[in-house]
Specification:
Number of domains: 2
Order of helices and strands: EEEHHEEHEHEE
Organism: Luteimonas marina
Protein name: DNA repair protein RadC
Number of helices: 4
Distance between the termini: 41 Å
Keywords: Hydrolase, Metal-binding, Metalloprotease, Protease, Zinc
Pfam family, one: RadC
Radius of gyration: 17 Å
CATH architecture of the largest domain: 3-Layer(aba) Sandwich
GO molecular function: metal ion binding; metallopeptidase activity
Strand content: 25-35%
């Protein structure tokens, strides 16, 4: 595993190579470090205290992918994090999501609620008709086993769109 540190000379992120020498970090290494940091910060049992905290977490996790990734935050009855799972990966403009698999995972985690999310590598967070239809299918499927869908957040870089905030859930 690479070690990261900030250089005191130019304030850029540096990574130590196999020989112990520091080199400038690549964009992918920086994104991986950010994902590790947010994962460490928001561990099992962490409470999402606001919609802004959820969006920040999801932007860090999904914002840098060049292909669509569909993820689920599995939550307990007090909306504390049980597990974050990247369940489906797709292409640059779509990902095939299977509600049955989301239901199975929710039951396996004994989740009371979920927040679903996916990224739009295009940079436009606006929900499509397909996004809205998928959200409805997930709500119906999860509702059969008493798991609430609290939100569907679309991440496009640092921009987000929340179905709950737009009254779509």
């Amino acid at each position: 595993m690479s070690q990261f540190s900030f250089s005191s000379f130019d304030a850029s992120l540096m990574v130590r190579d196999a020989k112990g020498h520091y080199q400038p970090a690549t964009a992918d290494q920086i994104l991986d470090a950010a994902r590790q940091a947010i994962e460490h910060k928001m561990q099992r049992g962490a409470s999402f205290t606001s919609p802004a905290a959820v969006k920040e977490y999801l932007c860090t996790k999904l914002g840098g992918f060049e292909h669509e990734v569909f993820a689920v935050l599995f939550l307990d009855t007090r909306h504390r994090l049980i597990e974050y799972a990247e369940m489906f990966q797709g292409t640059i403009d779509s990902a095939e999501v299977h509600p049955r698999e989301v239901v199975k995972a929710a039951l396996r985690h004994n989740a009371a609620a979920v927040i679903v999310s996916h990224n739009h590598p295009s940079g436009n967070p606006e929900p499509s008709a397909a996004d809205q239809a998928l959200t409805q299918r997930l709500r119906e499927a999860l509702g059969l086993v008493d798991v609430r869908v609290l939100d569907h957040v679309i991440v496009a870089g640092n921009a987000t769109a929340s179905f709950a905030e737009r009254g779509l859930i």
